[in-house]
UniProtKB/TrEMBL annotation:
Its cofactor is Fe cation. This is Putative 3-phenylpropionate/cinnamic acid dioxygenase subunit alpha. Keywords: 2Fe-2S, Dioxygenase, Iron, Iron-sulfur, Metal-binding, Oxidoreductase. Coiled coil: none annotated. GO terms for molecular function: 2 iron, 2 sulfur cluster binding; dioxygenase activity; iron ion binding. InterPro entries: Rieske_2Fe-2S, Rieske_2Fe-2S_sf, Ring_hydroxy_dOase_asu_C_dom, Rng_hydr_dOase-A. It comes from the Bacteria. It comes from Advenella mimigardefordensis (strain DSM 17166 / LMG 22922 / DPN7). SUPFAM superfamilies: Bet v1-like (SSF55961), ISP domain (SSF50022).
């Protein structure tokens, strides 16, 4: 149990303060409009992974309501990934109606204008009837697009102030090399939720709630402190991004994720309690062991994964500013996006990436984990719309945060700092 201020993570970051955090940014339409203009339209935003478009001509379309646009992301014949606004140069019709697919060229269905995979205008019906038309001037409008560790990001700025690498590396350079490429999307969920994007993200970037909201699902899988809550192993707050490392109960299947791929002593420990208390979890683990196509030795993980080197490590929360959450385990990860639609509405997109399983037993293990993570996610989501409705009553003007909620405090601080700086400029 914490007894002195020296144990507080927040003491490392005095700029964050320790006082109450205003509620107004979570309920104000005006504040949200400022976020759109000064943050989302000027920041790298994650929109997918390279595995979604492995071949030349593969594309997907992503609506970005927070940026007032829709983006086409495509792999060209040279293997490069391009992004364009989904707008024809002729009379502004959307080029692609389909959400994903493969194409040799982009054709506007309105008047037949054609564009290649690099966005160049290559075909204009009755071109001789136009007035001094220069094809080079009327290609698709390009969107800045770069890739980090297989994640595709876009930036609405024509010339971003930072490269994607410069944006990511101050906090996440030491997780580069994590085996993202050995994992595949095992399952995913999408939902529109009536709450502010920061409020939704806040519910996932602290562990104070785990012993309570998850009391009937995974509370037995956490490494509890003296007070019964899940005290973080460590926290890191950067200029924009933030991280939290958490420990688990190694005698449980959920709390010991390495067991299914490591087997041996790790599996024996995971089964030592779950065999009696959670027989289905134990059966799933036994069925899944040895099924993964790839190996995931702990000593091969990058230095920044489980950076405290805890023997009870469960996972690391990585919040990539502004709205992308990546939870890294030794052999799987969760990727959640909390993309705003309005000041009190988000599009939640959640994907969980697991090793490819080569046996029926391995598939059974994945199905079991899908159900567990679904239930955990539903528990997390169960408070969001209620919290938003309560915040909008105006009954409370401030939130009171404790030290383990430092990522919540940091997130609010970063957004407000950026908006204040933009207003002063």
């Amino acid at each position: 149990m914490m007894t002195t201020q020296e144990t507080f993570f927040t003491d490392r970051y005095p700029e964050l303060g320790k006082g109450p955090v205003p509620v107004e940014p979570y309920i104000s339409p005006e504040y949200y409009e400022r976020e759109k203009e000064q943050i989302f339209k000027k920041t790298w935003l994650q929109i997918g992974r390279v595995e979604e478009i492995p071949n030349a001509g593969d594309f997907f379309v992503k609506e970005l309501e927070v940026c007032d646009t829709e983006i086409i992301v495509v792999r060209n014949k040279q293997g490069e990934i391009n992004a364009f606004h989904n707008v024809c140069a002729h009379r502004m019709n959307q080029i692609m109606y389909e959400k994903c697919g493969n194409t040799r060229k982009f054709f506007c269905k309105f008047h037949g204008w054609a564009y290649d995979l690099n966005g160049n205008l290559t075909g204009v019906p009755e071109e001789e009837c136009f007035f001094d038309l220069d094809r080079k001037e009327y290609g698709l409008s390009q969107v800045s697009c770069e890739v980090w560790q297989g994640f595709v990001f876009v930036n609405m700025q024509r010339n971003p102030e930072q490269s994607l690498s410069e944006f990511m590396r101050p906090v996440f350079a030491d997780i580069e090399g994590y085996p993202f490429d050995k994992l595949t999307c095992g399952f995913q969920w999408t939902s529109v939720v009536n709450c502010n994007w920061k409020l939704a993200l806040d519910a996932f970037q602290e562990a104070y709630h785990v012993a309570y909201i998850h009391g009937k699902s995974i509370a037995d899988a956490i490494d509890k402190g003296d007070g019964g809550s899940m005290r973080p192993l460590d926290a890191i707050c950067g200029d924009l991004h933030r991280r939290l490392s958490l420990a688990g109960n190694q005698k449980s299947v959920y709390g010991n994720p390495k067991a299914v791929t490591s087997g041996g002593a790790a599996a024996a420990e995971a089964l030592s309690e779950s065999g009696g208390q959670r027989p289905i979890a134990a059966a799933a683990l036994r069925a899944g062991m040895g099924s993964a196509r790839h190996q995931f030795p702990l000593d091969a993980l990058p230095e920044g994964v489980n950076w405290t080197k805890s023997k009870n490590w469960l996972f690391d929360i990585n919040v990539i500013f502004p709205d992308f959450y990546v939870s890294l385990r030794p052999n799987y990860y969760q990727a959640y996006t909390f993309r705003p639609i309005a000041h009190n509405k988000i599009l939640f997109e959640g994907r969980v990436y697991y090793p490819e399983m080569t046996t029926a037993g391995g598939r059974f293990f994945l199905e079991y984990m899908k159900v567990v993570l679904r239930d955990v996610l539903l528990e997390d989501m169960s408070t969001l719309e209620r919290t938003q409705a309560a915040a909008e009553t105006g009954a409370k003007r401030f939130m009171i945060l404790q030290d383990s909620e430092i990522l919540v405090r940091h997130g609010a601080h970063v957004v407000d700092r950026l908006l204040t700086e933009a207003q002063a400029a």
